[in-house]
């Protein structure tokens, strides 16, 4: 992975978050949550800063980041797409929806499209099983998605401004 | 609340929120204000009503009219017709599928008739963001009763006598757990609420926190009083933003009202609660892993004993209970042990909440007395199988559970019966499958989940499940052998016997139960390279029947990869080298001309 240079501002943001939690090693997960919600992801360079602030080894921080699926070391696309692969969605055809997204965006789960617009991930139960299969793009939830609707959903974001919600 | 003449209850559960209940509420609010009615009618965002299939739901009080599938465009009509003229908006009423007649009140719908709501008693009835509504419905009365009238021993005795068992899956007697933790000597103890809810396809605990957060807060305080703890922690997934937000609001209000903090309700007892965030790891639902995660570490389980009640969070005695377990506590204290234990079966008292989902007409959140049969849940409450298909299996217990066949439909649901049937209660996921679901693929699906989620500490769980998955994959590709079937069973038992925590010990259950109950499907894959459900892509081909095809061109237009060709009004043809087997043409053809070979 190419090295990234963190700006002074980013570094002080991270330090500030660590300080909010009194630089306590036991608060690592809370720190990671906050930092990820600020920066979007947790690359190695960010983990190094956190490790130093909390006075623990980088290996330990890395161990925690990689253990939890919620934390990501890769930047997300501008429009992160998640396909629910919970059981309720699975039995109602989530797999076909996922393969259609993969095919149309030409990326795999965990990847971002070359233009940085879309990233693809799968998650387990959004809590809207009544609407299965469920897809989320950013904050927006699409219910009862069929493979045929995939193109339309992607198109909504290609022009830049999503049209008003229309989960069928 | 007293001055409002009417209340508009808009479902604010995750399901309804996903289908526009936010804009519905906003429309109501602005339109009521425009008409100068905001002093007479109050709009309330509640938690999940349970009937998510029919969402978004809007209920009107006091007449209890239950509107279904409401859209933001319907608000004006509801205000003008129902609120002003007193006429119900017929087209938004629920239609009984049997009689085709509209039903106005939820209590008359089959979906609700057999339900008994204890843990969910307030979900869909009160505004979860207003502590006063909780208080108006007996809220914090149980805490008051404990502090004023009961010693910790007496309160624990009530819980023991009620027969309440843990709803997180294990079914351990709750009163006994509290008693054990109480008896451990230590000047610092903790109460932990397990809101990790790792079972994919389940949303009970989250819905309770979204719809009635105060019940959990009250119960945790009662637990603190009983065991001698002044600190509580809720471990919840960061992926549940709505539940977190409502819980935070509730905690703030409880502190403002002196229901949390120092000297609660003027007593000697002090208690407060903090939130800890999980980060998406199923194994963190296991209590020892959960505790490590709360300490900021990797969420790996450790060997028990010591149990958390002896050595838990930061090495201190810790009582861990599930959200739904807690939600049952205040009613038990208020109404007494005898009332609670009169509901349910001999060894499983009270009710159980299930997230009913899959190929069923009424997907939703339900609560039924223990002892209700699977048939009652699936057919009476669930309204039967979607699209008139045939029932094949019901899965309970999530990735640790099993798939039961129609032979088990009359089994009364309780901890022991489900175990005896080869599945388990689990935390309450209940997934219904129909004739189109391939049971080998289902087993593979669950294993994929376990593989993702194994913490990797034990070799049998880490490697063994991987091997199981490889074999299942081979079978769904049509490359399995008879030997693989025996291997599956052998390996499953090894994993069960040699893994450290509940995850590994139960992970082969979906494989074993499908082998036991659906051997014929495994054999069809292995012996005939045939998937009876027509789901395993490698084993099927979509073909067009020349005789039946009218050349309507529908499939040609619908196929996402352009694999279908043909002239208008003459038979079409599928190019197998292009076909991605998405099944779109098969679903859409109006003439049944596309067949699976
Ligand atoms: C792999 C695994 C996952 C678990 N997940 C959960 C969960 O998501 N929620 C939960 O309440 N209990 C879960 N449990 C059970 C807990 O370890 C623990 O028994 C429970 O929280 C105790 O509460 P109860 O007695 O009120 O049920 C899980 C157990 C295992 C082995
Ligand atoms: S059984 Fe699996 S999940 Fe449990 S401790 Fe062992 S490796 Fe981890
Ligand atoms: S949709 Fe059916 S009838 Fe129409 S062209 Fe395709 S196969 Fe023929
Ligand atoms: S399984 Fe997808 S929303 Fe529940
Ligand atoms: S989310 Fe509205 S009824 Fe369940």
Describe the structure.
- The complex is a heterodimer of chains A (168) and B (597).
- Chain A is of the alpha+beta class.
- Chain A has 2 domains: 60 residues; 88 residues, Glutaredoxin.
- Chain A is 42% helix and 11% strand.
- Chain A has 7 helices and 4 strands; from the N terminus they run H-H-H-H-E-H-H-E-E-E-H.
- A 4-stranded mixed β-sheet of chain A has the order 2-1-3-4, with helices on one face.
- In chain A, helix 1 packs antiparallel against helix 2 and helix 1 packs across helix 3.
- Chain A starts with 7 loop residues before the first helix and ends in a 10-residue tail after the last helix.
- The C terminus of chain A is likely disordered.
- Chain B is of the alpha/beta class and 597 residues long.
- Chain B folds into 5 domains: 101 residues, Glutaredoxin, CATH 3.40.30; 210 residues, Rossmann fold, CATH 3.40.50.11540; 84 residues, Ubiquitin-like (UB roll) (Roll); 90 residues, de novo design (two linked rop proteins); 57 residues, Alpha-Beta Plaits, CATH 3.30.70.20.
- Chain B is 39% helix and 15% strand.
- Chain B has 24 helices and 19 strands.
- A 5-stranded mixed β-sheet of chain B has the order 12-11-15-13-14, with helices on both faces. Chain B has a 4-stranded mixed β-sheet with strand order 2-1-3-4, covered by helices on one side. A 4-stranded parallel β-sheet of chain B has the order 9-8-7-10, sandwiched between helices.
- In chain B, helix 9 packs parallel to helix 11 and helix 18 runs antiparallel to helix 19.
- The longest helix of chain B has 18 residues.
- The radius of gyration of chain B is 26 Å and the shape is globular.
- The chains are: A alpha+beta (168), B alpha/beta (597).
- The complex binds flavin mononucleotide, iron/sulfur cluster (SF4) (2 copies) and FE2/S2 (inorganic) cluster (2 copies).
- The site of one FE2/S2 (inorganic) cluster (FES) has 14 residues of chain B, from helix 1 and strand 12.
């Amino acid at each position: 992975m190419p090295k990234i240079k963190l700006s002074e501002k980013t570094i002080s943001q991270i330090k500030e978050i660590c300080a909010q939690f009194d630089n306590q090693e036991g608060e690592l997960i809370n720190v990671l949550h906050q930092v990820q919600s600020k920066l979007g992801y947790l690359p190695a360079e960010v983990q190094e800063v956190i490790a130093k602030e909390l006075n623990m080894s980088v290996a330990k921080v890395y161990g925690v980041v990689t253990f939890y699926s919620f934390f990501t070391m890769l930047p997300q696309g501008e429009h992160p797409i998640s396909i629910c692969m919970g059981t309720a969605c699975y039995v109602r055809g989530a797999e076909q929806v996922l393969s259609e997204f993969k095919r149309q965006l030409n990326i795999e789960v965990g990847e971002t499209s070359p233009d940085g617009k879309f990233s693809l991930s799968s998650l387990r139960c959004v809590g809207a099983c009544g609407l299965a299969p469920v897809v989320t793009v950013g904050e927006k939830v699409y219910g009862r998605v069929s493979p045929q609707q995939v193109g339309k959903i992607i198109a909504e974001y290609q022009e830049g401004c999503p049209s008003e919600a229309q989960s069928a | 609340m007293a001055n409002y003449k009417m209340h508009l209850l808009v479902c604010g559960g995750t399901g309804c929120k996903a289908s526009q209940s936010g804009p519905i509420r906003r429309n109501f609010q602005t339109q009521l204000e425009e008409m100068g009615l905001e002093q007479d009618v109050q709009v309330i965002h509640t938690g999940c009503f349970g009937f998510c299939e029919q969402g978004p739901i809007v209920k009107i009080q006091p007449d209890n009219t239950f509107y279904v599938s409401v859209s933001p465009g319907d608000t004006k009509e509801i205000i003008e017709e129902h609120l002003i003229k007193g006429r119900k908006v017929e087209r938004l009423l629920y239609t009984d599928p049997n009689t085709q007649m509209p039903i106005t009140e939820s209590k008359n719908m089959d979906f609700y008739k057999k339900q008994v709501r204890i843990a969910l008693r307030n979900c869909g009835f009160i505004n979860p963001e207003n502590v006063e509504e909780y208080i108006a419905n007996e809220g914090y009365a149980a805490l008051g009763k404990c502090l004023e009238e009961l010693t910790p021993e007496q309160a624990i005795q009530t819980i023991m006598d009620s027969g309440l068992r843990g709803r997180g899956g294990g079914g351990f007697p709750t009163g006994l757990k509290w008693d054990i933790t109480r008896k451990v000597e230590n000047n610092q103890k903790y109460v932990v609420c397990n809101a990790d809810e790792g079972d994919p396809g389940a949303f009970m605990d989250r819905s309770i926190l979204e719809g009635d957060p105060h019940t959990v807060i009250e119960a945790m305080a009662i637990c603190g009083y009983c065991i001698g703890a002044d600190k509580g922690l809720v471990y919840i997934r960061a992926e549940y933003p709505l539940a977190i937000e409502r819980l935070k609001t509730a905690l703030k209000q409880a502190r403002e009202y002196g229901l949390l903090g120092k000297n609660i309700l003027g007593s000697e007892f002090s208690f407060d609660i903090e939130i800890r965030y999980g980060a998406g790891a199923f194994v963190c639902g296991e209590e020892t892993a959960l505790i490590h995660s709360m300490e900021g570490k990797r969420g790996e389980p450790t060997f028990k004993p010591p149990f958390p009640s002896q050595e838990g969070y930061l090495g201190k005695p810790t009582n861990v209970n599930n959200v739904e377990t807690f939600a049952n506590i205040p009613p038990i204290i208020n109404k007494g042990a005898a009332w609670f234990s009169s509901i349910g079966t001999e060894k499983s008292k009270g009710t159980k909440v299930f997230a009913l989902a899959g190929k069923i007409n009424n997907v939703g959140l339900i609560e039924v007395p223990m002892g209700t049969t699977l048939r009652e849940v699936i057919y009476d409450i669930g309204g039967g199988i979607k699209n008139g298909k045939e029932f094949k299996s019901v899965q309970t217990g999530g990735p640790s559970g099993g798939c039961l066949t129609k032979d088990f439909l009359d089994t009364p649901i309780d901890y022991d019966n489900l175990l005896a049937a080869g599945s388990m209660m689990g935390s309450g996921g209940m997934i219904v499958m129909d004739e189109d679901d391939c049971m080998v693929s289902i087993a593979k699906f669950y294993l994929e989940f376990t593989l993702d989620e194994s913490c990797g500490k034990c070799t049998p769980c880490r490697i063994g499940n991987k091997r199981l998955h490889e074999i299942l994959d081979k079978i769904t590709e049509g490359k399995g052998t008879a030997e693989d079937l025996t291997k599956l069973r052998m390996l499953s038992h090894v994993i069960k016997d040699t893994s450290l925590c509940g995850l590994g010990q139960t992970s082969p259950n979906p494989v074993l139960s499908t082998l036991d109950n659906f051997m014929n499907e495994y054999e069809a894959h292995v012996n005939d390279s045939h998937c009876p459900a027509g789901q395993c892509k490698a084993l099927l081909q979509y073909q067009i029947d020349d005789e039946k095809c009218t050349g309507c061109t529908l499939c040609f237009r619908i196929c996402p990869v352009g694999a279908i060709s043909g002239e208008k009004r003459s038979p079409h043809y599928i190019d197998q080298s292009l076909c991605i087997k998405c099944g779109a043409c098969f679903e859409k053809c109006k003439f049944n001309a596309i067949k699976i070979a």
